[in-house]
Amino acid sequence: QVQLQESGPGLVKPSETLSLTCTVSGGSISGYYWAWIRQPPGKGLEWIGYIYYSGSTNYNPSLKSRVTISVDTSKKQFSLKVNSVTAADTAVYYCAREPYYDILTGPKSWADSWGQGTLVTVSS
Amino acid sequence: DIVMTQSPDSLAVFLGERATINCRSSQSVLYTSNNKNYLAWYQQKPGQSPKMLIYWASTRESGVPDRFSGSGSGTDFTLTISSLQAEDVAVYYCQQYYSLPRTFGQGTKVEIK
Q: Which of B49, B101, B105 has its CB closest to that of A116?
């Protein structure tokens, strides 16, 4: 069964860059889309974007100008960078797998496996 | 963006009773060419990450108890817990994956009365 684990600094200063990595174990990184989703404390879920193992990406327009998702298949990792962070970026960040792809409709999928999440606080 | 609206925001149900959560999308998430509704349900227990329950609006993920069921089509969907158990206390989210960006409902908190 695939497992995902987020890692990265828990505290980031305002205006700096938030960087997180998700490591995939127990399964292949190839053939899947991999997503980042965040949850501000006490609030709901926000989809940040995804990356295909080949490197193609799609981002939420609300964050697109500040977000970069990349993948390293040799390490079975994918990463998230959010630049120019503010307090509004304080959240638990989850990585997840999106397992479904249809040749006619493309990558329209739910998230079937999630990491445990990592809290990132933006504060000076 | 497709806006997902859940109701109620919270509900309290007696153990063994039925719990019903509604989810409405601002536009249809039914893809007519394959007659599939691009709608999922997740369960998030306190201090845990979300867990996949249902996809295609009504297909249970492997291992999910059959007291959980999903129904609906187009813009109106329902998650039903037929007989609430203590371990079902959680926040439940619907999500559309019909179009980008994927969007979630605001969540419904289920408690024991």
A: B49
**What's the token pair of residue A22?**
């998700």
Report d(CA A94, CA A100) in Å as an integer: 19
Q: How far apart are alpha carbons A39 and A89 in whole angstroms? A: 9
Residues from chain B contacting residue A46 (CB–CB below 8 Å): 104
Q: Is the bond into B8 cis (omega within 30 degrees of 0)?
A: yes
For residue range A45-72, what is the model confidence (pLDDT) as tens digits?
999 999 999 999 999 999 989 999 999 9
Which one of B34, B48, B49, B103 makes the best mutation probe of the A interface by having the most chain A beta carbons within 10 Å?
B49
Instruction: Give yes or no for a cis peptide into B101 (omega within 30° of 0).
Output: yes
Q: Which of A86, A80, A72, A88 is nearest to A39 (CA)?
A: A88
Which two structure tokens, joined as six digits, stand for B90? Answer: 């959680």
* Cβ pair A110:B31 closer than 8 A: no
Whether residue A57 lies within 8 A of chain B, CB to CB, comes out as no
Residue A111 touches partner B, C-beta closer than 8 Å: yes
d(CA B34, CA A102): 11
The whole-number mean pLDDT for each consecutive block of 10 residues of chain B, a chain of 113 residues, reads 98 98 98 95 97 98 97 98 98 97 98 98
- Asked if A113 contacts A4 with a C-beta cutoff of 8 angstroms, the reply is yes
